[in-house]
Amino acid sequence: MLTFQNFKKRTAPTLESVCRDLIRENKERISVKKEEVAVRNMTRILEAVFALNREKGFGAMSLRDLSRRSGLSMGALYSCFPGKEELRSMILRRGAAYTREVILDQAPACATPAERLETAIETHLYLSESLRPWFYFAYMEASSLPRRERRRAKEDELATEQIFLDILLEGVAGGSFHCADVELTAALIKAVLQDWYLKRWKYKRKGITVEGYARFVVEFVLSRLTGNA
Amino acid sequence: MLTFQNFKKRTAPTLESVCRDLIRENKERISVKKEEVAVRNMTRILEAVFALNREKGFGAMSLRDLSRRSGLSMGALYSCFPGKEELRSMILRRGAAYTREVILDQAPACATPAERLETAIETHLYLSESLRPWFYFAYMEASSLPRRERRRAKEDELATEQIFLDILLEGVAGGSFHCADVELTAALIKAVLQDWYLKRWKYKRKGITVEGYARFVVEFVLSRLTGNA
DNA sequence: GTCTATATACCGATAGAC
DNA sequence: GTCTATCGGTATATAGAC
Predict the structure, then answer these.
(1) Same domain? A36 vs A97
(2) Confidence band (pLDDT; 50, 70, 90) for B228?
């Protein structure tokens, strides 16, 4: 079992570190040239974006709201990103890429399908817990994209689901899993993992920790896959 | 097993019929006095709202967008609802009330817990399938509400979950279900049901019908509850 | 690199003709 | 009941001082 502490120690997914990747990825579209300045400002910007996204949604958020909340002037904002729509695209693109990197970096090939499934579930939950506002933003804003980008967002979602599907298929092929519909099972796992960061208020109210939730999901799914018939 | 056809025949959840309830519920806040006119216009308004909600989100939708899409002028819009925020509130309030009415109206008390659980899952899925854009809207907009209304939206969500929780508790008490954590199991069911209307593009692509999805969810959950250990 | 001031377009909401 | 015209205010984005 992977603990949340060990995950954080190994992967260290802080807002600032992902912001740094975002800055480097979009260097030519950002007029601020000193990386340290850009990272510091972008971190404050994203903190404000995510807070305002929770309160009123990105579409209803104005750049004046963002300026006030982040403490940066309108001019400073525009020196860090080229426009509101582009800011959203940058955030979504980097988030999807980072998720893919982390999830693919985790599963040791030598483990059994059951162990791999457990690790994949834990990793996904711990990552979304570490960057919960980012994940929440990505989920809520993915459908408000221009056609071309929305298409890619859907492919990103299917790619994550595919990771679970592959593990299920291996387990079924090797005889350790029994499952009539692996595709729907993979979709179910994905939906349950997303509920953790979409409805955190609910689990917080119930007093559930992320490790407790992980244990529940792993046990629920594995008992279905390895149980009778 | 409840079929989608039988559900629709018995409950008949059309956009127009729910709009009629919405009009009656908010009669004093709507200046159009002929009910037939108000229902016809409100139906067109909600069709446009839901379409624009999918494309850009309610917050980013302007009333001019809405006017263009619905074919009604700005003045006609304001004769059907008192303002943009109030329109959102009216939609969310009626949707939550209607869902509660339909779900509570369905479970025959004589059935076993397993049958009641099956019926509750099917009813929820069939209702969200019939009014999918409404459910999608309610999910996406519930978090962008003023404090007081958001609080009630959360209670509505918990009330639906409570229906599943009650069935699980009865089953456990009667010995027909085995379940270590009924609260998390109820939350899991809810999350999986929501995924159906939130990610329909995914299931459509896979060729899954609402009845196929219902069968999968019922089988998955029941096998866990009535299986070993 | 960060600020204030401003250009231009559009917002939600309303008044008054028909 | 529905329309067009228009109100005051605010939106995104930019220009130019420092």
Answers:
(1) no
(2) low
pLDDT of residue B229: 43
| Burial of A38 (C-beta count, 10 Å sphere; 0-12/13-18/19+) | buried
Quick one: tokens of B77?
A: 């819009």
Q: Give the pLDDT mean for B126-133.
A: 98
Contact A59 B58 (CB under 8 A): yes
Query: Does any domain span residue B190?
Result: yes
Give the contacts of B126 (CB within 8 A, at least 6 positions apart). Answer: B2, B4, B7, B8, B11, B210, B214
Judge whether residue A63 contacts strand C, using its CB and a 7 Å cut-off. no
Q: Confirm whether A58 is domain-assigned.
A: yes
Mean pLDDT of A31-44: 98
Q: Give the nucleotide nearest to B77 (CA→C1').
A: D2
> Residue type for B36, please?
E
Give this prediction's pTM.
Answer: 0.97
Nucleotide nearest to B76 (CA to C1'): D2
Confirm or reject contact between B12 and chain A (CB < 8 A).
Answer: no
pLDDT value of residue A228: 54
Query: B204 touching A, CB under 8 A?
Result: no
